[in-house]
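Quick one, T. Sequence first:
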Amino acid sequence: MFTGIVEAVGQIASVASRADDVRMTVVSDKLNFGDVKLGDSIAINGVCLTVVALQGQGFDADVSGETLSCTTFSELVAGHSVNLEKALLPTTRIGGHLVSGHVDGIATVSACRDEGNSRRIDFTVPEALSRYIVSKGSICIDGVSLTVNEVTGNHFSVNIIPHTQEQTIINQYQTGHRVNIEVDIIARYLERMLGSADATLAIDSSLLQRTGFGPSSENS
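Structure tokens:
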């Protein structure tokens, strides 16, 4: 698990094809590797990967064909910058929100503009993911925990403060840029618990009463 608070920006040093998979080497002179060991998890642009080798100020990770197919990793080449976060510890302050590192899909930057000292970025997401995104809710974009400003259909926007621009790769985004998206894990579990993921979920007073969130019929 992760918090969506990026610890450092790293660079892709190499990408080597291995059958249907790739082995990726990531380096960073800003991430502390002193407590990293083989088998540990590190999020790269919001994707949870396993450290399979340590390389001084870097590490190797294997990326499966499945991960390549549902993330932007197929577009990464040597020299690309990436957001990095080590897995959280029981004592970690959760400054963002709980992030699994399991990407749900890819969104596309539809517009960027400055608003005061911040930068407002609009995204377009696949229709299947739009129902999990709500105004003032949390979303993880390339491993960064952000608050959703507005939602309209399958479009949403976020405001990026100067600190986040300086500490992540978000300052590199331009219209058309593709990013990894992980929706709030709570939304996915609630949908699964309350009904089929393929069905329209209608939340009304009757449903709330049956699931213990409203007054019982005896007291109404």
